């Protein structure tokens, strides 16, 4: 029996790279769909790429015609995709292109913010709304069992938002104390690649059978996380709490993230600061905490382990 052919969009990202390597590990033939086919893939050397029989093709999720052409040319049957926040139709055109080109199953990098009935989520919550609309479009195109939404919580790699402040020996934050989970992007990607190869049959038969929540194993504040980073890079880093407006301005300036997204993130942090860590009392949390071990048969990566592996990323 010929191996399943899976196409990975965004393989130069941390999650996409891990998804590609994982899909290969679990038996897929892997196509790397990239805007720039000359870019290197994190964690995958040219030698490993050749030996693994990976195939590169030019494609851009924001351009549905390139998506359809890439799938047609490679005859891929399964696809890993991520959210395009700039899409005016919540990726409906891209999803349609995948379907028309012959994709049968999709793994979406979604968000923990999507809970319950996706159609009930209101547009006031930008993060949840955007991810939910894309999940709805996937469901309409592929059916409930034709896709899996991987819903991680707070990425460990979000710590790289501090990178441009670290050289000053001070990180300014509006809300340094709320605790988050710090899930490794590599864990998210490995899980995604496993689902891509195995398909939806490996999931439970529940109301949200095609949604998998993925929290990290930690309960660490940003302040404590910065302490771990400081130890790893051998530098004293002071954490200074600033007002919400200044925190927003610093966040936008030092990360380059859109102001709308920064406002949503700070609102989430502000709510957590006042009401406590919502994630750890979420009804999905306790069960989801075991998903890495359940599906990958290993423990999730701890934050200090992720920082140690990526400490050069924090050095400018």
Task: Describe the 3D structure.
- With 316 residues, the chain is an alpha/beta fold.
- It folds into two domains: 5-154 and 183-216 and 285-300, NAD(P)-binding Rossmann-like Domain (Rossmann fold, 3-Layer(aba) Sandwich), CATH 3.40.50.720; 161-178 and 218-278, UDP-galactose 4-epimerase, domain 1 (Alpha-Beta Complex), CATH 3.90.25.
- It is built from twelve helices and eleven strands.
- It has helices spanning 14-25, 46-51, 64-74, 92-100, 126-142, 185-198, 222-233, 244-255, 259-275, 285-288, 291-296, 303-309; strands at 5-9, 29-34, 55-58, 78-82, 105-109, 147-152, 170-173, 179-180, 211-214, 220-221, 238-241.
- The strands form three sheets. It has a seven-stranded parallel β-sheet, sandwiched between helices. It has a two-stranded parallel ribbon with strand order 7-11. Strands 8-10 form a two-stranded antiparallel sheet.
- The model has no long low-confidence stretch (mean pLDDT 94).
